[in-house]
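Possible regression after last week's pipeline update?

I re-ran a chain I had predicted before the update to compare outputs. Posting the input and the new output here so someone can diff against the archived version. Not blocking, just want to make sure nothing changed silently.
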Amino acid sequence: MRILIAEDDPSFRRLMEELLVAWGYNVVVAANGNAALQILQAEDPPKLALLDWMMPGLEGVEVCRKVREKNEEPYTYIILLTAQQSDEDLVTGMEAGADDYITKPFKHNELRLRLRAGRRIIELQNELLAARDTFRTKASHDSLTGLWNHAEILEILTHELSRAEREEKCVAVIMADIDFFKKINDTHGHLAGDVVLRSTAGKMHSLMRSYDFIGRFGGDEFMVILPDCSLEYAAAFAERLRLSVSSDSIDTPEWRIPVTLSFGVATSNKDRLKDAYSLVNAADRALYQAKENGRNRVEVAPCDGSIT
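New output (post-update):
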């Protein structure tokens, strides 16, 4: 684990570095408080820090206070090194956000135990952060395909429409549906159907721009959101998606299954299709038209959302 030593006394700093290296730490050093703060506020800072209270520039307690003001994750466990002995001084250090303190001179084993405690707290916090991220992903993503789930993709669409209205831009929506998916399940089984869903989702996701969105709308239906996108581009992009999926059969454990999709495309505009319901409904009607016209094709909704 990386650890910062902020100490202005060169000989004491060198002694500390030798100790910590011997204990298995990857040591970063700073000779003053300003350098320490810069290191702790950089990208991927050390998770442990030993800060001398009295240093040139910013004192250790001020460095600690400024780090805590940022309130960034992951957490940095800070131990103050101090010759201060009064309760008032120690309370000041802890109120500034220090997690622990050790008074000079100190016993090596005492420091080692304090660091071990700090390391354990960091490990526990990392486990909590990983668990939180897992729960967030489960709440917002479809478990089978890994795409945004129904509720989240609609929330994203509402947000993108609001932003587009402020910036006087448009948003395109593509609704996609796997052709004859029920037949795939009935003929090859639901496990093969799951493979088809995952593979189809992966092929489409690989073509998205970094600021596009794709979600599983339900069953075998997908929604694609293209911010700042014209109807012509959206239709051409839907055609790329169609060709990407249909160009090659999907491998399952027992079968190679040919898969095609039908697409409906609609875009928002100033006068109509400004809300999520209207825009999705227009794209859905275009998708239905694609199904009626033979499947494995792209249909585009007129700007007023109607389908003739």
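Follow-up from reviewer: compared with the archived run. Residues 144 and 194 are 7 Å apart (CA to CA). Marking as no regression found.
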